[in-house]
Write a structure and sequence with these properties.
The chain folds into 3 domains: about 1-175 and about 265-330, no CATH class; about 200-235, no CATH class; about 335-369, no CATH class. About 45% of the residues lie in helices and about 10% in strands. It has helices at about 25-35, 45-55, 60-75, 90-95, 95-110, 170-195, 210-220, 250-265, 280-305, 310-315, 335-350, 355-365, and strands at about 75-80, 85, 115-120, 125-130, 135, 140, 150, 160, 200-205, 225-230, 325-330. The protein has a 3-stranded antiparallel β-sheet with strand order 2-1-11. Strands 4-3-8 form a 3-stranded antiparallel β-sheet, with helices on one face. Strands 5-6-7 form a 3-stranded antiparallel β-sheet, with no helix packed on it. Helix 1 crosses helix 2 (about 45-55) and helix 3 (about 60-75) packs parallel to helix 8. The longest helix is centred in the last third of the chain and has 26 residues, at about 280-305. The model has no long low-confidence stretch (mean pLDDT about 80).
Length: about 375
C-alpha cells in the first residue's frame, strides 16, 4: 500500500486526547504510577506519562534532555548508496519533518515508546500519537487513554511505533529526583522567608496594655519583616537550626546532589553540565569521554532505526530514492586522539600493509567518485 497516495482516516482524529494531569505529585504518586505501568494483567502508562509531562518543567532536567537530543540532531547525517553520497536526499534530511523524526527517535529513549502516523501526500509529514494511548503489550492505539479498545497498529504501514514494549524510559529514573527537588526548593524558599530578614523583638511589661497596643501599631507600620512581642517576664527562645545551617547551604547541597543524579541518569556524567569544586581538566576529560560513549550509542540506535525496513518503506512510499541505501552519521574528528593515533598507524604501516579503506574511515578522508 502506498501511504503517500491512498487516502485513509487519520488515527489522531479518531482518538480522544486528554490534557496532562497537573495536580500535586509526590513520591507516592510516582510509585503508584510505576506499579500501574508495570501491571501484568492491565498495564497503563497514563499516570506515569502525566508525571513525565510534569517533571519536564524542571529547568535542569529540560536542559540535560535538550543537550542529549541536540547532540544527535546536530550530527551531520547523509544518505548513501553503494558507499556514494546521494545528494537528492540532502533536502529531505535537512527538512523540519525529518529533523522531527530524529528528535522523536531520541525522545523514545527518554519516554520508552513513541508512535508516528505518517500523513499521505507528496512530502514527508506525520503526526505524533499521544504516548498515553499506545498499548505496546496488545499492539493497540486506544480511543481513550485509560481504555482497552482501539486500533491495532502492528499491520498499519503508515504507523511507526518505536521503543521496547517493556521500557519505561530514562525519565522514570529522573522523576523521584525532580520530585524531591521540588520539596527542597520549597524548604529553601521557606528558610529564606523566615531567616532572610532580621527578626525584630520587642519586650514589654505584661500588665501594660496601653504600651503593648502602641508597640503593635509601631511594628505594623514599620514593615512586614518578622516581628515578635514578648512579655518581659516570659522566657522565649527560637530553635531554628541556624547554627548548623547558617547560610542555607544544606538545601543548596541537597539540590545540587539531585541535579547531579539527573545529569548522570540522562548524560552519564556531571562535569559536562555542572562544575564541581574538585573538577579539573583530567576529570572533565574523563566525563566528556563518558558522555561521548553514550552519544555514540544514541547515534548508533538512531541510525539503526532510520535504516529499519519500516522507515525505509515509508520513505519509499513518498517516492524518495532510498533503494539499497542507508543513512549514515558522519564521524566527528577528535583531533587530539587522531594526533596520537596517526603516530601508531605510521609505525604499523611500516610493518604491514593497511587497506585504503582504513585511512578513509579513521581520518574521514572522502572517497573518490
Amino acid at each position: 500500500m502506498n501511504i503517500a497516495k491512498e487516502q485513509q482516516p487519520l488515527i489522531i482524529n479518531e482518538i480522544n486526547v486528554r490534557s496532562a494531569d497537573r495536580g500535586y505529585k509526590d513520591i507516592a504518586t510516582w510509585r503508584a504510577a510505576l506499579t500501574t505501568a508495570e501491571s501484568v494483567y492491565n498495564p497503563n502508562r497514563s499516570r506515569l506519562y502525566d508525571l513525565y509531562e510534569d517533571i519536564m518543567l524542571d529547568g535542569h532536567l529540560s536542559g540535560v534532555v535538550a543537550k542529549k537530543i541536540n547532540a544527535v540532531l546536530n550530527k551531520e547525517l547523509f544518505f548513501e548508496t553503494g558507499g556514494k553520497h546521494v545528494e537528492e536526499m540532502d533536502s529531505v534530511i535537512q527538512s523540519l519533518p525529518f529533523r522531527k523524526v530524529v528528535r522523536t527517535l531520541v525522545e523514545t529513549l527518554l519516554w520508552g515508546i513513541s508512535a508516528m502516523e505518517f500523513i499521505p501526500g507528496c512530502e514527508l509529514a506525520f503526526n505524533l500519537i499521544p504516548r498515553k494511548h499506545i498499548k505496546p503489550d496488545t499492539g493497540i492505539i486506544t480511543w481513550e487513554q485509560n481504555g482497552q479498545d482501539g486500533i491495532p497498529y502492528t499491520e498499519m504501514e503508515n504507523v511507526w511505533v518505536t521503543g521496547d514494549p517493556n521500557d519505561l524510559g530514562l525519565l522514570l529514573r529522573c522523576a523521584p529526583y525532580c520530585l524531591y527537588k521540588r520539596g527542597g526548593l520549597a524548604d529553601w524558599a521557606q528558610y529564606i522567608e523566615l531567616f532572610g530578614q532580621p527578626v525584630r523583638v520587642i519586650r514589654y511589661d505584661s500588665y501594660d496594655d496601653q504600651t503593648r497596643a502602641e508597640l503593635r501599631r509601631i511594628l505594623d507600620e514599620s514593615g512586614s519583616s518578622l516581628s515578635l512581642m514578648i512579655p518581659r517576664q516570659a522566657d522565649f527562645e527560637i530553635v531554628d537550626g541556624k547554627q548548623s545551617n547558617s547560610d542555607g547551604d544544606l538545601q543548596l547541597s541537597f539540590i545540587k546532589a539531585l541535579n547531579e543524579e539527573i545529569s548522570v541518569a540522562v548524560l552519564g556524567n556531571t562535569e559536562t553540565t555542572n562544575s564541581s569544586r574538585s573538577a579539573g581538566y583530567a576529570q572533565s576529560r574523563i566525563h566528556q569521554e563518558q558522555q561521548a560513549e553514550i552519544l555514540k550509542a544514541d547515534i548508533a540506535w538512531t541510525a539503526a532505526m532510520l535504516n529499519s525496513k519500516k522507515f525505509l518503506n515509508i520513505l519509499r512510499s513518498y517516492g524518495y530514492p532510498v533503494n539499497e541505501g542507508r543513512f549514515v552519521f558522519r564521524n566527528d574528528m577528535d583531533v587530539e586522539y587522531l594526533y596520537k593515533r596517526i603516530a601508531i598507524d605510521k609505525e604499523i604501516a611500516g610493518m604491514t600493509e593497511i587497506p585504503d579503506a582504513y585511512w578513509h574511515q579513521m581520518y574521514g578522508i572522502p572517497t573518490r567518485a
